[in-house]
Design a protein that fits this description.
With 371 residues, this protein is α/β, with parallel strands linked by helices. 40% of the residues lie in helices and 15% in strands. It has a seven-stranded mixed β-sheet, sandwiched between helices. A three-stranded antiparallel β-sheet has the order 12-13-14. The chain is globular.
Length: 371
Amino acid sequence: MVDLQKQYSKISAEINANLAKVIDSCAFIHGPEVMQLETALQEFLKVKHVISCGNGTDALQISMMALGLKPGDEVITTDFTFVATAEVIALLGLTPVLVDVLPNTFNIDPEAISKAISPKTKAIVPVHLFGQCANMEEILNLAKKHHLWVIEDACQAIGAECLFKNGERFSAGTMGDIGCTSFFPSKNLGCYGDGGAIFTNDDELASHLKQIANHGMKIRYYHEEIGVNSRLDTIQAAVLNVKLKYLNAYNKARNQAANYYDQALAECKELILPNRSDFSTHVFHQYTLRCQNENQRAALQDHLKSKGIPSMVYYPVPLHLQKAYQNDRYPKDCFPITEKLSKSVLSLPMHTELGEEQLKFITESVKEFFN
């Protein structure tokens, strides 16, 4: 699904030099490379503050802690996402309120958000799934109307841009009160271990986020509030400082692969190809198609496996059907789109190193199954 070895081989000299520099300095925690990365990301995303942290899940948790959300407060998010998004909400004693998604983009449905807002609602967490932004203009309008916080889960969409009706363009993760990303190795901008970051344009909030991520202290050994220990180590920052320079090229390569898939599979009527919204660019963290006949998905996956081609189902079980998140507020079939997607989606290999020969083999193997 992801060829990190081939990607590394092209930038190994730069990576190795940066790693050697960190090891020689022994500045493994809060070394200068961490500040260098935060500054570079601020410029890349056009955001005032970047606070690096241990991973994307931590980024979400720290964000909710910084907003002062209290147990029992409701946080609206999507039912069709990786568990971390809802996990941190529940972990903090907040109430995750799950809503359905749009069938074309797989992103959270603003209309469903509107219907789910209650007097207990305090925040919305839209997820920019698979590489393109949710409809942030509508979501921000809802948040403003109801005085709600917005935390963007941009872990799969770094480098994507959202276009507003007035012509303004914003990077994923920079439109809400806070944005979060993950540097998990398979992400579009991934390190060689765990890592994450938080974005905000609010000076006061940035200071609070930094404090919480550092054991709740501004001055060493003086703890003003309960915090956590979440930091990006210098070695990971050194890797990311190299890879950030190539992120636009990496996202372009992903789009080229997606274009090949689109053209090669266009006549395959048994499949529904990924949609590209008119208000967001797409960085194709995943290339996720749908089987018109959901009963064919498993057989298609087996056929690809027999050819040595990996594929993945993101996500086979909606959050509201997971044992940990089952709730009486979610009756059976309450999220028809998410439930249908979970039975029909299939992601093909997507990474920066896909060559035409590989893409041809993959797409011909898919068409062979249906022929």
